[in-house]
Automatic annotation (TrEMBL):
It catalyses: guanosine(527) in 16S rRNA + S-adenosyl-L-methionine = N(7)-methylguanosine(527) in 16S rRNA + S-adenosyl-L-homocysteine. The gene is rsmG. This is Ribosomal RNA small subunit methyltransferase G. Specifically methylates the N7 position of guanine in position 527 of 16S rRNA. Its EC number is 2.1.1.170. One of its GO terms (molecular function) is methyltransferase activity. It comes from Vogesella indigofera (Pseudomonas indigofera). Pfam families: GidB. Keywords: Cytoplasm, Methyltransferase, rRNA processing, S-adenosyl-L-methionine, Transferase. S-adenosyl-L-methionine binds at G76, M81, V127, E128, R142.
Length: 208
């Protein structure tokens, strides 16, 4: 199966309707990720064909759960997941991709330029030191840290009434139990990623 066929079938399975232009952008991002990964070690997944499910479709399962948000922060974005695919799927969303690794943010800046993504800002900083002018109504992370650490380090960036939407593998019972007392889980949703035979969950955390 071609990358294009796998991506379009996966989008249909997730229930995301994207334009041909958006699909072209996702494929362009995949190509850049595979190219830069040879030098910059952006992801442990080396084979471009595996990146469709492991990175694109996995990241895009977040998108249906961002309703009501206008500003999204992707903490520890690495190679841009899930922030870049989310920004492509939701051009109305202002997305900040943040990582402390200069090599990774160099790639992210180049990807934003080449893909012409006006709704994405790249920040090189540690999350606990980041002080933007405006806070975020949605904060996500795919592989940054355990849930409690993620919330503790980035809670100063959450707008009033905002939500953490953390992407996890197996149901994170222990991580949820370690959450700071002033935060609570509002829901844990199982996610189904086309082409990926692994458990995935989305954990929504809100201030009490």
């Amino acid at each position: 199966m071609t990358h294009h066929a796998e991506l379009t079938q996966g989008l249909a399975a997730i229930g995301l309707e994207l334009t041909p232009e958006q699909i072209t952008l996702l494929e362009g991002y995949l190509g850049l990720l595979a190219k830069w990964n040879q030098t910059y070690n952006l992801t442990a997944i080396r084979e471009e064909e595996r990146m469709v499910s492991y990175h694109l479709l996995d990241s895009l399962t977040l998108v249906p759960h961002l309703a009501g948000g206008t500003r999204l922060l992707d903490v520890g974005s690495g190679g841009g997941m899930p922030g870049i695919p989310a920004a492509i799927a939701r051009p109305d969303l202002q997305v900040v991709v943040l990582d402390a690794n200069h090599k990774k943010t160099t790639f992210l800046r180049q990807a934003v330029i080449e893909l012409k993504l006006p709704n994405v800002e790249v920040i090189t900083d540690r999350v606990e030191a980041y002080q933007p002018a405006q806070k975020f109504d949605r904060i996500t992370s795919r592989a940054f840290s355990e849930l409690a650490e993620f919330v503790k380090l980035s809670k100063h960036l959450l707008a009033d009434g905002g939500q953490f939407v953390a992407m996890k593998g197996v149901y994170p019972y222990e991580e949820i139990a370690q959450l700071p007392e002033d935060f609570a889980v509002s829901e844990v949703l199982p996610l189904s990623v086309p082409g990926l035979d692994a458990e995935r969950h989305l954990v929504r955390v809100v201030a009490k």
